[in-house]
Amino acid sequence: MNALFGVFLFLLVSFVTGSSGNLPILSFDEGYAHLFGESNLMVLKDGKSVRISLDETTGSGFVSQDVYSNGFFSASVKLPGDYTAGVVVALYLSNADMYVKNHDEIDIEFLGNVRGKEWRIQTNVYGNGSTGFGREERCGLWFDPSDDFHQYSILWTHDLILFSVDGIPIREMKRRAAVGGDFPSKPMSLYATIWDASDWATNGGKYRVDYKYAPFVSEYSDFVLHGCSADCDELAGEIPGGRERRRMMAEFRNKYLQYSYCYDRSRYPAPPPECVIDAGEADALRRFDPARFGRRRRRGKRQQQTTMGDKPSRRVAPNEVEETHVSVSWPGFKNGVDRGIIRYPQSGKAARVLPSGKSFPFSEAKPILFTSPKGILGTQEKGRPLPKFGEWDVNNPASADGFTVIFAKARDDKKAKSTAAPPQKDGIPPSSNDRESPRSKRKWFCFF
């Protein structure tokens, strides 16, 4: 652990509490260089503020003079006002200039809108060239970002990426084994740009840049570039104030989250392995966009429901499952929608991959009825005890970091196939008796 690490932890405390007064502020010439559109870039007289603009001829941008393997990066930004549809203003880390085919990227993008509609902030993370797998999230803001300056920050460590607005955390992404090389790990530079993204930025390209409102001017100040340059040891460690950080982030996301790839089932039928489904976020998304994130209608006759206590579950042996991927959705959950993933490697040693990124040997599989420590089903929070199955007590789980409900379908003598469980009333999975028919002789079993 080098001396810089101690300084870095001190700055993390400042970051979590929203204070940037002790962070070193750089002038533009000390930390940055022109990137493109030099005619549309103006350094103000104090040397610590810069304006970049978009007009009919070009956008503009600048880049940090150094590259970093991790650190804290921040700027105060004031966005253009009035009609800004199709305009994107960005503050992001990237190494696409050095790694053309396998670059990393950590994005904050501001998406313009038509007059009277709010700017949206979009965050995204790429690792090792995984641009085909989008991890976008979009949020509204509690202020008009074109009225005044606000601080936007990226904290990037070996194990965590944390985005914040005015010191309030709005998103985090942790390094997990399931993410693999998709977690950014190579040295990157910090970029700031403004450009024409008419093809996608506003309502999927429905509203384009209207240059009669040009120039579109964005102003940056209070530049913070504090981190580990590419030739020093990586910084790692726990960030102070974890409980308060999570509380603030949950409060923000439950009010302002407008899109998250983790909940977009039309795009990803099963949530990517790094996703942890949260009931409050699911509710926020349903309120904002019920067509995309609302409950799906069920077709056909509703089946009779019973509890899992009618008949104990048993384990499904690896040779009883053929398919390599199983997902399940429960729109009937009272507090939100949740899904799970189960994978059976070709070796036959089955393992479950949870949204938290944890995986366990198949031999340790035991049944479970709820989906997360928060109790997505709502049973724990209302004081109703969960039932026991066999020797394992679901009221006292050994590890409580992202449980999920998963179903596998046992095969009959002629054909084996695993599949997702159908939606059920009130989130109660069917018992074996409910699912058995004389014709198929197949049964459903529940695991975590």
Q: Mind explaining what this structure looks like?
A:
There is one protein chain. This protein is mainly beta and 448 residues long. It folds into two domains: 14-260, Jelly Rolls (Sandwich); 305-448, no CATH class. Helices cover 11% and strands 29% of the residues. The chain is built from six helices and 23 strands. It has an eight-stranded antiparallel β-sheet. A seven-stranded antiparallel β-sheet has the order 2-3-14-5-10-11-12. Strands 16-17-18-19 form a four-stranded antiparallel β-sheet, with no helix packed on it. Strand 2 and strand 3 form a beta hairpin. The radius of gyration is 25 Å and the shape is globular. Residues 292-323, 413-448 are annotated as: Disordered. Its EC number is 2.4.1.207. It is an enzyme of class 2 (transferase).
Radius of gyration, whole Å = 25 Å
H and E string: HHEEEEEEEEEEEEEEHEHHEEEEEEEHE
Summed up, the domain count is 2
Name of the CATH architecture of the largest domain: Sandwich
Number of strands: 23
Shape: globular
| Helix content estimate | 10-25%
CATH topology of the largest domain: Jelly Rolls
Kindly, what is the distance between the CA atoms of the first and last residues, rounded to a whole number of angstroms?
A: 38 Å
CATH classification, class level of the largest domain: Mainly Beta
Mean pLDDT: 71
- Give the class from helix and strand content and strand pairing: mainly beta
Unreliable parts: 1-7, 296-448
**Count of alpha and pi helical runs:** 6
Strand order of the largest sheet: 1-4-13-6-7-8-9-15
Largest sheet features? 8 strands, antiparallel
- Kindly estimate the percentage of residues that lie in beta strands according to DSSP: 25-35%
Organism: Genlisea aurea
Pfam families: AvrRpt-cleavage, Glyco_hydro_16, XET_C
Enzyme class: transferase
InterPro entries: Beta-glucanase-like (IPR000757), Beta-glucanase/XTH (IPR044791), ConA-like_dom_sf (IPR013320), TypeIII_avirulence_cleave (IPR008700), XET_C (IPR010713)
